[in-house]
Every structure is written in C-alpha cells, then in structure tokens.
Amino acid sequence: MGELDPYLIPALDGVAYGLLLFVVAAGLVLSFGVAGILNLAHGTLYAIGAYVAAWLADGGWAAVPLALVAGVVAAAAAGTALAGLLTPVRRGDHLTQALLTFGLALAGGSLLVSAFGPDDLPVRVPAALDRPIDLAGHSYAAYRLVFIVVAAVIAVGLYLAVTRTRAGMLVRAAVDDPQMVACLGVNPTRVRVGVLAVSGALAGLAGVLGAPIIGPGPTTAATVLLLSLVVVVLGGLNSVGGTLLAALAVGEIQTLGVALLPTAAPFLLYAAMALILAARAQGLLRRWSTA
C-alpha cells in the first residue's frame, strides 16, 4: 500500500478528469452519431457553461443552482441555434460541417473573450467544498470528491436514458432507420434539433460543474474539444459504455502519466491513442481475413 500511496491522489484526479470528459464527449457522440453533425464548436459550448459559472459563482450555495440552470440553458440555446445554422449543410460532407462549426467556434470564442476578458478566470465554490479533506492519510479537494459522485450519477442517468427510455429508443432509431421513425409519426428533423440541444446542455452542464477543474479561459474550448475528440475516437460513436471507458482511460493517462513519467507526459495520450487504434485495426483485419 505504501508504494501506491503517491499515486492515490493522481488516480482520483484521473477519475474526476475522465468523468468530466465523459459528460462532454457524450454530447459530441450524440451530435455526430444521431444528428450526423461533426460539431467542432462543442468545446465552445463547454466554455459557455464554464464562463457562466465563473460569472455567477460567489462562494455561496444559492449561486450553485442559478449557475447550473443558466449555464445549461445558455449552452442548450446555443446548440439549438447551431442546429439552425447547420441546416443548409446537414446533408453535406463532414469537411463542410467541420469548417463551418470551426468558424463558429472561433467566433464564439472571440465573443466570450470580448465579454469576459483575455485571462483565465477563477471559479469560487461554496466554502464547505473549498477545503481539503483527509482521504487515506492524504489531503484531497472536497469539491473534486463531490464532483466524482455527481458525475458518476450523471453517467448512470445518461446510460439509462439512452438505453431504457422511449426518448432514448427514438434517438437510437433515428440513427439506424430515420425513415421508419418518420413512419411512426415522429419528425426526424425535430429529433436531430432536440439532440443538438441536449448535446449543448450536456456541454454546458459539464462546463458549470467542471469549471473548478478545467476553468474558463481563452484556450478552454480548444483543450476540451481536443480531449473530447480523442475520447470519441477511442470509445466509438455507438456505445455509451465505450465512451465512458475511453474517457476514464484518457483521464488516468493525463494525471497518472504526469506522476509516473513527467518528461513523457505530453506525448503519452497520443502514443496510447495510436497504439489503441493500431490494435483495433489489427483486430478488424483479423476478422475480415476470417470472414
């Protein structure tokens, strides 16, 4: 146990980081897997929630629900507006979508910097959470421990919503057979717009809750988008469980990697991604060769 003690805190940080990335990446999976939109503005939706949290948080408990509601509503509204702006290119190739959403991300980022300034902003949390607690002989931030619990509940709720509810079934059906969904009297376009709104809401929720971990600043949107894309590439587009496992893996690589191999830490994530993709390709090749 003594040999593992130095890595307990980085491992817990990896869980918190991974769960945060899961909530963000889940929205990205929904927007691409269901709406068919490669949304490179997704990191900006996270930044909206984070900036709202920094703006409204004053260290009191009353600001917490206010920031949550405002951040989620603002990001969901941005996601809905994005759905409207993307309507002309919805049936186009993904490169066109990527270029348009990238341009919107740049514009949105510039607006946020103009509104809140070019510096990283601190986010105040309630005093009861803004203190260390003793955990197996180590000091650990109370907020991060609470965040792990809350994010785990969100992850379970999202999984159940996608796999066990009528809305989740409609979302999955819209991916597999949109014509059949239309025959059932459900407008697939409304499903896609709703999915982009929910995707934005998830990003905004992650931004508010995760602001004390990945705080608002000029580079926040790009950082979150890059890590979310890595999670989606590793976890795939058709599995909530796969996205969760990939997000936790990325979180641990980002935190434990610094503790174990500090000089190689900047390259560990991308080296691991290359190895996993190569292994996946080899597995596909084996299945194809035996088919």
TrEMBL record:
Q: Per its UniProt record, what CDD domains does this chain match?
A: TM_PBP1_LivH_like
Transmembrane annotation, as ranges: 6-30, 37-57, 63-86, 98-117, 141-162, 193-214, 267-285
Similarity field: Belongs to the binding-protein-dependent transport system permease family. LivHM subfamily.
- Give the GO cellular component terms, alphabetically: plasma membrane
Which processes are annotated in GO (biological process)?
Answer: amino acid transport
- Membrane topology for this entry? Multi-pass membrane protein
Supply the source organism for this entry.
Phytohabitans flavus
Q: Show the taxonomic lineage.
A: Bacteria, Bacillati, Actinomycetota, Actinomycetes, Micromonosporales
What's this protein's name?
Answer: Branched-chain amino acid ABC transporter permease
What are the subcellular locations of this protein? Cell membrane
Q: This protein's superkingdom?
A: Bacteria
Q: Which UniProt keywords apply?
A: Amino-acid transport, Cell membrane, Membrane, Transmembrane, Transmembrane helix, Transport
One GO MF term attached to the UniProt entry: transmembrane transporter activity
Q: Principal localization?
A: membrane
